Amino acid sequence: MNPALAQREVALAGVALLAAVLAVALASPRGPNGESAHLQPVPVPGGGWYTALAGARPVHYGTRTNCGVVLRPQTRGLVDSVLPCNVKLFVTFAGSDRVLTQVIARRPVVPGRRFDVTPALADDLGIHGIERIKWVYAR
């Protein structure tokens, strides 16, 4: 076989492989914010969810959290003093749909609470004031 022809066939095979990888990546199911749609709640022992007090606090839009998230009016997330940045959690309140969210900041929260939530997440869940929410890790 001619060396130039062999080189051309290798190049075409590389382009075909790259196209296949891109097609798979673009066709993979994604949820809101680009998250995998396959994340599921990880039930606590006994099959339930954890409970915790949570409340919304005013945020300064346009600032960056210590987890690197820029706060915007549509930002949905939790603040916690223990869990690491970007840990994915499902949260629910009083029969609302479960919402996939993440830890967007690490800092102490108001004593007595486990989480502070962004105003957008509080609206999604129907939280007014301080409420007992349910939460589990997402996997």
Give me the secondary-structure topology:
Layout: H1 3-27, E1 41-42, E2 50-56, E3 78-80, E4 88-92, E5 99-106, E6 115-117, H2 119-125, E7 130-138
Parallel strand pairs: 2-6, 3-5
Antiparallel strand pairs: 1-7, 2-7, 3-6, 4-5, 4-7
DSSP helical segment count? 2
Order of helices and strands: HEEEEEEHE
What overall form do the CA principal axes indicate?
Answer: elongated
End-to-end separation in angstroms reads 51 Å
Strand portion: 25-35%
Q: Could you report the average pLDDT, rounded to the nearest whole number? A: 84
Parts with pLDDT < 50 across at least 5 consecutive residues: 26-35
- Which strand order does the major sheet show? 2-6-3-5-4-7
Descriptive report:
It is a single chain. The protein is α+β, with helices and mostly antiparallel strands and 139 residues long. Helices cover 23% and strands 27% of the residues. The protein has a six-stranded mixed beta barrel with strand order 2-6-3-5-4-7. A hairpin with a 6-residue loop joins strand 4 and strand 5 (99-106). It is elongated, with a radius of gyration of 21 Å. Mean pLDDT is 84; it is low at 26-35.
Name some characteristics of this structure.
single chain; 139 residues; six-stranded mixed beta barrel; alpha+beta
Task: Summarize it.
23% of the residues lie in helices and 27% in strands.
